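I had to read the description of the data format several times before I understood it. Each protein is reduced to its one-letter sequence and a matching series of backbone shape codes. The format is easy to grasp once an entry is in front of the reader. For illustration, here is how one protein appears when written out as sequence plus structure tokens:
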Amino acid sequence: MASSPTSSSASSRSTPFASPDFSSLPIMALREKIVEKILENRVTLIVGETGCGKSSQVPQFLLDKNIKPILCTQPRRFAVVAVAKMVAKARNCELGSEVGYHIGHSKHFSSSSKIVFKTAGVLLDEMRDRGQNALEYKAIILDEVHERSVESDLVLVCVKQFLLKNKNMRLVLMSATADITRYREYFGDIGRDERVEVLAIPSSNQQTIFQRRVLYLDRVRSINYHS
């Protein structure tokens, strides 16, 4: 069985996006509540600042509750690959097996993959070729929804149409600065007595999440001059 993302083997690894100790991420305190709300509501909006752990941890929360397969979209190719690698390491699995990704012509996943990361553009191409069969997932996570584009808006339209026909799929929207009212209104007609559940991840000291080195322009010039 794959190890927990909070296990010692996973927490000893350093990643560019999260603290090596996953248990210190702000989102971990809401693990059970997040899963509970996603199961109770067909559309859930998770709002949390950059570095809170939502991109890497929410897919794992769902998988650990046997909710699979899971599709996660990211707005940029770099983020797709980086988060997929992080999650694969956390679960001690080879990238492309349980956890995979698809960007452009680069495919690293299989029919047995349980978490797959893609760009919105790739998902649109798949829907063009396969129709709504491309959305046959138990959960779809659209990350960074505040970074709007033609592709991301089209994905929202297609996913909403799919939700109207599929009562079993769960949609999770994630953002650092989402317009809550906009999404509540947009998905307000998917079903009687249904609503968009909103969960806010508490803030934390960013210094405990990121390992950063700040260089000011004068210092950079000095380094370049002496190099």
